[in-house]
């Protein structure tokens, strides 16, 4: 029953559904790492609670916490959230959790990517990452789902799919020499096709400016439905983000998806550039391996880093002048979902946002033949 | 949903089913403690695997393992066994797991007893036990069941119920000053009635000779059906077990159950007295708090320490002359179940047996009114 399959999802007739397809629920992890999260992670925990509470209004949420934090997490999270013991090195469930695939006959299985903390000893964000590397398998056990062990070093935040054969990713991440230097682009595409059952890979160049994940696409661009994508944007030519978004737009405007459709691109204006404050550099544990946090460093803030739940969108807010317009745009793009904002600066300080700390479990579907 | 209720099962209309009623499944823990289990717990792990495999032929089994042993447990246990991360101080799921109660409307909730490692600093078996004390709550979270926090210091192996209002226990354990010295017998009975929804408590005196749990009833005596109990027995008047079993027989023969029925007592002859060998004292981690293991010490071996599964009995075997008769007797007493024996001496060396390392989750039942 809890088998690791030697085959691939493609060979077995499984595919990855898009995030906007129906979910069984959502998984998260509980933050506690003292060199990522300031002040004993208490401000970050408060933000994670807000995210968990918002999502659990739409679908069941399970949070993994270490033994040391289990009682605190159980007590702090809403009763509707299930809290299970899962050790981890940090709290990025999108990147360390499984990518769950479905076969149209009600079955779920999970892809367990190889994980090296976003670059291993060549630019990775911490060492060691042995606890992170077991999270996906542990989630799949609790979900009673079988497992594929993929040969790619990759994270769940480095790609998006439309559920109809198209995948978007970035060269900055997937072709980085600190992930799979022994594989060329064609081999990586072949692996993505085999493990996600996609037929077309759209390669953007770079992720959001200053994103420490080596350019995860989930902070830059996502599908809102098949054939339509949403791209973080700025009109300020002096902002380094301008060229990144401009170049992504050019690629997206000329590409077609797996079914041959041109892509409609919606732009969502980024929040004004924001930087780490002096206060926000205090209260972190000393660490030789952690990325240093310096006052004045630009944060990789983007509204694209939202979670699509059953009937809902849970999106980051930054107390920024663009918050309102971003919410309104998402409400227009997702007319059947309720848009809920969560002030997520504390998550951003740790290096990611709402999409990075969540991972959906799709509903097992039964296709009518 | 994952609420801790302030009320009691009795007040809310929940009762504890007997072990012979239908199960959803069975929970275990994975042994690793180096001062309980010799040779890095490898021989014990092999025995636990045999038990898990035997039970999983009858009902779903989930095993909890620490992060450090998770990969090994997952790899060693059969694929049919679900392996989840649960930290513990040792591997006695009967005693640290929840006691699950049902309400006749399909709902399950669990009683989480207070745990002090069989006596705390006054005769307890190790220190600390903080990880054990969270196991029951963690099991209930994964099972999505609510929780009652009982005020009694007690373990699941210290009582048996018939599912029809009767509980059997021992004075040696439940009235021990190292469990609930602030409560008298009447108060303890009232608590048992409130948390298990029983109406009658049958008090035996002592548990099996040399049992280090302070006389858990589950090694001495159990229900085989309402109105019928099974008692470990010896005809050897020179064996200290003789008087213990004789006295228990006298009490059981004169008591009636909650429904006023006299109890039918079946005797099951114990294995011949067996002692720890010199080799079995080797390969243990040094520990100031662990009970010393000495060659020649009598082991508390009993056939009563079996697990009742859906359609099966998984019982301990000792390569003893009485094994065959014990199996035959259980087959007669449980005519609708398949009796499977597991050679369990390695579990016995750690201080318990098959019943001690398992905990059933009853089926949520819907009573016809």
Explained architecture:
Two copies of one chain form a homodimer. The first copy, chain A, has 369 residues and is an alpha/beta fold. Chain A has a single domain (4-362), classed as L-arginine/glycine Amidinotransferase, Chain A. Chain A has helices at residues 9-12, 42-56, 67-76, 93-96, 135-142, 171-174, 185-196, 240-254, 323-333, 345-349, and strands at residues 4-5, 23-29, 61-65, 82-85, 99-102, 108-114, 146-153, 159-161, 166-170, 200-204, 221-225, 228-233, 264-269, 307-309, 312-317, 338-343, 359-362. Chain A has a four-stranded mixed beta sheet with strand order 1-7-6-5, sandwiched between helices. In chain A, strands 4-3-2-17 form a four-stranded mixed beta sheet. Chain A has a three-stranded mixed beta sheet with strand order 8-9-10, sandwiched between helices. In chain A, strand 2, helix 2 and strand 3 form a beta-alpha-beta unit. Chain A is globular, with a radius of gyration of 19 Å.
């Amino acid at each position: 029953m809890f088998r690791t399959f030697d085959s691939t999802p493609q060979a077995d007739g499984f595919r990855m559904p898009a995030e906007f397809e129906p979910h069984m629920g959502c998984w998260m992890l509980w933050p506690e790492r003292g060199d990522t999260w300031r002040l004993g992670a208490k401000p970050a925990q408060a933000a994670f609670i807000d995210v968990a509470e918002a999502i659990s209004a739409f679908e069941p949420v399970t949070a993994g916490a270490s033994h040391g934090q289990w009682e605190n997490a159980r007590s702090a999270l809403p009763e509707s959230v299930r809290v299970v013991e899962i050790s981890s090195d940090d709290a990025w469930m999108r990147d360390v959790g499984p990518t769950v695939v479905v076969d149209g006959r009600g079955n779920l299985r999970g892809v367990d990517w190889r994980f090296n903390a976003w670059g291993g000893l060549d630019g990775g964000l911490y060492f060691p990452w042995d606890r992170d590397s077991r999270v996906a398998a542990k989630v799949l056990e609790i979900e009673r789902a079988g497992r594929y062990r993929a040969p790619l070093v990759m994270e769940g935040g480095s790609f998006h799919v439309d559920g109809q054969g198209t995948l978007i990713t970035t060269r900055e991440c997937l072709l980085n020499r600190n992930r799979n230097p022994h594989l060329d682009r064609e081999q990586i595409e072949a692996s993505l096709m085999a493990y996600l059952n996609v037929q077309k890979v759209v390669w953007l160049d770079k992720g959001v400016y200053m994103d420490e994940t080596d350019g995860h696409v989930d902070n830059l661009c996502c599908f809102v439905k098949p054939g339509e994508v949403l791209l973080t944007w700025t009109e300020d030519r002096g902002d380094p983000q301008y060229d990144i978004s401009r170049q992504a737009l050019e690629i997206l405007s000329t590409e077609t998806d797996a079914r041959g459709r041109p892509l409609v691109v919606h732009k969502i204006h980024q929040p004004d550039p924001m930087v780490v404050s002096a206060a926000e550099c205090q209260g972190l544990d000393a660490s030789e391996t952690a990325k240093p946090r310096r006052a004045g460093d630009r944060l990789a803030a983007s509204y694209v880093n939202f979670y699509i739940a059953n009937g809902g969108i849970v999106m980051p807010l930054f107390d920024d002048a663009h918050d309102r317009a971003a919410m309104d745009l998402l409400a227009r793009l997702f007319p059947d979902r309720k848009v809920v904002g969560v002030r997520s600066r504390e998550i951003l300080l740790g290096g990611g946002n709402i999409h990075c700390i969540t991972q959906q479990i799709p509903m097992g579907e039964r296709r009518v033949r």
